[in-house]
Structure formats: structure tokens, C-alpha cells
Amino acid sequence: MRIQTPSVVRRRVPVAGLVAFLAFGCTTHWETQRSVDIAAPPATVWEVLVDLPGYPDWNSYSPRAEGELRPGGVVTITAKLGEEVQVVDNRVTVVEPGRRLCWHSMNWYQWLARGTRCRILEPAAHGATHFVHHEVMEGPLAGLIEALYRPRIDAGLERMNADLKREAEARVGSKPEWSSTENSRSE
């Protein structure tokens, strides 16, 4: 006589195997970067970037942001990843006015996958700004996040860069003289 095992028990072995594979066999690190040249000075770009209550007026990728922009402060971002909306709490790690703003995700799953996002403002020719959006994803499930979300994260960074460019240039009354976007990926 053969003993029947419940389907729940039979499913646990593949699920446990999948979890072990994801935890130990996947990519644990990936990066993406998007940049844009903005015909506005770094001070203006910074002013737009750090005005969290103003995000709904110009930022289609992260239309809601609230919190304290100081090292150790917490900023909650609502991000539109295609049709999906994610709310992420972030710990601010770097605030260098007019130059650099960084934070990392701090939700319950941060030990499985943690994103660190930096925005870098570099002075460019003719009083313009070269703006760089750099994201690093780390942790045992970084590969899964990459497979599920990277195209949407990349598209969101592109969208936010375009929105930031448009808003900062409008504030100084600039006509875009160029439309240079650099994209790079490193694994």
C-alpha cells in the first residue's frame, strides 16, 4: 500500500529549493545609471530635487515624497513602476547641498534586497548641470528584483530625469539647448 502525501507537503520541497536558490544562487548586486544634461545651474536643480512637497507638481515617477532630508532622516517615496505603485521608506545617507543626495531603502525586506539611490549634480558648461541618477541593488534577492523590476526602474529613472530637466529649465526660463541622455549599465 502506497501512502499518499498531501500536495502541501510535496510543494514545500520545491518552494524550499526555490528559496535556497534565490538566497544563494542569484545575483547579489546590480547597478543602473541614468544621466541628463539640464540647462539650469546646479542650485536650481537642487532646489527642485529637495522640494519634497513639490514632487506631485513635476515628478511623474515619484509623485509623493515626504520626510526629512538630513543624514539619518527618513523619506517615504511613492514610486510608480508601470501600473504598480510601491511605497518605500528610505534612510537618508548623504546630503551635500547642490552636489549629492543619497538614501537607501529600509523596509522590512531590506536584508533580502536593499536599493541605494544617489543623485549627483555636476556643474557643466554654460552654467548647466550634468545630473546623474545612480542606483545599486544588493542582497540575496537582488537578482529577482532585477528580473522583476529593472526595466521599470530604468524607465522610472529616465522619466524622473526628464521631469527634473523640464521643471528646472522652466524655473530659469531656459529653452533646452540639448537633449543628451547617457545610459549605462554595469553588472
Question: What is the N-to-C succession of helices and strands?
Answer: HEHHEEEEEEHE
* Rg over C-alpha atoms, rounded to the nearest angstrom: 20 Å
- CATH topological fold name: Alpha-D-Glucose-1,6-Bisphosphate, Chain A, domain 4
Q: Tally the helices.
A: 4
In the sheet with the most strands, the strands line up as: 2-3-4-5-6-7-1-8
**Beta-strand segment tally:** 8
Please report the first level of CATH classification, the CATH class. Answer: Alpha Beta
What is the level-2 CATH architecture name? 2-Layer Sandwich
* Proportion of helical residues: 25-40%
Ranges with pLDDT <50 over ≥5 residues? 178-187
Structural class computed from helices and strand pairing: alpha+beta
Shape: globular
Strand content: 35-45%
Q: Give the terminus-to-terminus CA distance.
A: 53 Å
- CATH superfamily annotation: START domain
Averaged pLDDT: 85
Please indicate the count of domains. 1
Could you describe the largest sheet, including whether it forms a barrel? 8 strands, antiparallel
Describe the structure.
The protein contains 4 helices and 8 strands; from the N terminus they run αβααββββββαβ. It is α+β, with helices and mostly antiparallel strands. It has one domain (28-186): START domain (Alpha-D-Glucose-1,6-Bisphosphate, Chain A, domain 4, 2-Layer Sandwich). Strands 2-3-4-5-6-7-1-8 form an 8-stranded antiparallel beta sheet, with helices on one face. A hairpin with an 8-residue loop joins strand 5 and strand 6 (114-123). Helix 2 (42-50) packs across helix 4.
